[in-house]
Fold:
Amino acid sequence: MLQAAQLKPERWTSRSRLSHRAYRDWLKIPVNTDAMFAGLSADARAAIIDQAFGLVDQRSWRWESWSGWTAWKSEKEN
Structure:
């Protein structure tokens, strides 16, 4: 689709260490856990997530990987 729009696409990836505290906070965003905690309020979800992450070694971490696309118009075509 990007090429059809005459854009030059480039795929990128990023990998970094994600602390369990950051991951816990990311899970508290409702859209990320709607299916897992359907029908619970945001406060109830946060309490469950906090309880679960209370069992995790806070010094530990996990890899977080992201992929995306960047696209631009070639200067020759402008």
